[in-house]
């Protein structure tokens, strides 16, 4: 018996199209992160990027449960004293709705070079249009 390890050059990548309209943010993000990592494939190898490309449309119509619409806050720090910035969910949704889903998915990927490589395969668009028709993405339901 030998353990199979996928090699970087042998990985066959597919393109998937996901419609985020009416989907819950966290549940959608976990499904997307799983596809980006390649966990849906039998040749999944933890230390090789075996994942596929994911195109997400209608990111502005993603749903959150409870009162998160009013209470959720996105924080970042500049590294300087007093450099904490807080932006409420509603303001992010009004200005850059795609960033909400990107932030959720990024938090579910590995925090290293491999995770950054996986994250680059995610394409999020606020509306129903996307420029990736040439890749012939396969529509999936998450």
Give a description of the structure.
With 142 residues, the chain is an alpha/beta fold. It has one domain (12-129): Ribosomal Protein L13p, Chain: A (Alpha-Beta Complex). Helix content is 29%, strand content 18%. It has helices at 25-37, 68-71, 89-95, 97-106, 113-119; strands at residues 15-19, 53-57, 73-77, 84-88, 122-124, 138-139. The strands form 2 sheets. The protein has a 4-stranded parallel sheet with strand order 5-2-1-6, covered by helices on one side. It has a two-stranded antiparallel ribbon with strand order 3-4. Strand 3 and strand 4 form a beta hairpin. Helix 1 packs across helix 4 and helix 3 packs across helix 4. The longest helix has 13 residues, at 25-37. The radius of gyration is 17 Å and the shape is globular. The model has no long low-confidence stretch (mean pLDDT 96).
Q: What characteristics describe this protein?
A:
5 helices; 18% strand; single chain; two-stranded antiparallel ribbon; four-stranded parallel beta sheet; 6 strands; alpha/beta; 142 residues; Ribosomal Protein L13p, Chain: A
Topology:
Elements: E1 15-19, H1 25-37, E2 53-57, H2 68-71, E3 73-77, E4 84-88, H3 89-95, H4 97-106, H5 113-119, E5 122-124, E6 138-139
Parallel strand pairs: 1-2, 1-6, 2-5
Antiparallel strand pairs: 3-4
Helix pairs in contact: 1-4, 3-4
| CATH class group | Alpha Beta
Give the overall shape.
globular
> Segments where pLDDT lies below 50 for 5+ residues?
none
The CATH topology name reads: Ribosomal Protein L13p, Chain: A
In the residues, how many domains can be counted?
1
Strand content: 15-25%
Shape-level CATH architecture: Alpha-Beta Complex
């Amino acid at each position: 018996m030998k353990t199979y390890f996928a090699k970087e050059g042998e990985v066959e990548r597919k393109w998937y199209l996901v419609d985020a309209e009416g989907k819950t943010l966290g549940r959608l993000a976990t499904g997307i992160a799983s596809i980006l990592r390649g966990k849906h494939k039998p040749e999944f190898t933890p230390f090789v990027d075996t994942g596929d490309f994911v195109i997400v449309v209608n990111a502005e119509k993603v749903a959150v449960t409870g009162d998160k619409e009013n209470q959720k806050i996105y924080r970042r720090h500049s590294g300087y004293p007093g450099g904490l910035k807080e932006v409420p969910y509603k303001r992010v949704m009004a200005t850059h709705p795609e960033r909400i889903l990107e932030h959720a998915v990024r938090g579910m990927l590995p925090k290293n070079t491999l995770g950054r490589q996986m994250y680059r395969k995610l394409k999020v668009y606020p509306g129903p249009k996307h420029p990736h028709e040439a890749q012939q993405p396969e529509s999936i339901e998450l």
